[in-house]
Amino acid sequence: MHPEVLAMPQQRGPHRIAVIAPSPVSMFNLAIPELLFAKVEVDGAPGYEVTVCTPDPGPVATTGGLELHVSRGLDAVRAADTVLLAGTGERYAPDPRTVAAVREAAGAGRRVTSICSGAFVLAEAGLLDGRSATTYWQLADELRDRYPALDLKGDVLYVEDGQILTSSGYAAGIDMCLHMIRTDYGAATANEVARLALVAPVRPGGQTQFTHTPLPPERGTACADTRGWAMRNLDKPLTLTDLARHAGVSVRTLTRRFHAESGVSPLQWLLHQRVERAKELLETTALPMDQVARSSGLGTADSLRTHLVRRTGLTPTAYRTQFSRVGTRTAA
What pTM does this model have? Predict the structure, then answer.
C-alpha cells in the first residue's frame, strides 16, 4: 500500500465529487459523503460539490424499503474530480454502465473510491487488479473469491492504493471520507469536520474493522481516560510504562485492552496522534520545525521529517507550503 499522496485540488471552485448510488442503496452509505464534505469551507466558500447520480435517473430503491429520487445520471461522473461508489451493504451484481463509467474515470486520472460493497464495482472494472483493497468484512471472502487478482485487506477500515481508495462498511466510510478531506485540505480541516459532525478524528486506515476479544462489560472504555490524558500530554516523552501507570494496570494488561478497544497497539496509536498533531501545527502556526517536533512529541526536526515523509510522502516544509493557513511560513 502506498503512503497517502497529498494533493490540494488544483481547479478553481470546489472539488467535485460524484456519488454513484446503486439500487438498492444503503441510505447510511449515501449520507456519509453529503454529511462530511458539505462541512468543508475554504475561505468562506464550499470546498466540495457533491452530486448523487445513478445509471437510471428517477426512483432508486433503498435497503430500508424507502424510495429515493435521484435526478442525475452517470454523465455527472465525467465532470467529477472524485468518484465515490456507495454500497448496498449486501451482495449485488455491478451494473455494467457503472462499471464502464468508473473505468473511464480512473483512466482519466480521477480519484475513485468505494464504501462497503462498492468495491465490487471497482473490482469488476479491473481497477483493483494487483492493488490492495478492502470491503465490509462479511463480504470479504466473496470479493476475494470472485476477484483473486486483488490483494484483499479484510480486516482494516480503509485502504489507499494510489488513486483508488476502498473502505469497509458503515462507519468505516466516515473514516475514509475524513481521510480524503485530510488529503485534500489538511489535518486541521479534517479534524474540524470531525468535531462538527461529532465523530472521532481521522483514524489510521490500518485499524481493524472489529475486535475478536470481548471487553469486560463493566469497563468497555477502560483506556478512554488514558487516551485523553495522553492527548493532553503529547509533548512529553510518554512510554508504555507511563500509560500503564495512568491506567492503573500492568503494561501487558494495558496493551491487551488498548488493542481490543482501538485495534492498534498503544505506541502505534500514540505515534499516529503525534503525527496528526504535527500536521495541525504545520498548518495553523509558523513555529520552527524543531518546535513543531517537540510540541507534538516527535522529538527532533529529523524525526518529524522521517515520520511525515513516511505517512504523507511530503517533507514538513512541503506539507506546510501546501496546507498552511497562516501568512508567514517558516522553512526547515
Answer: 0.72
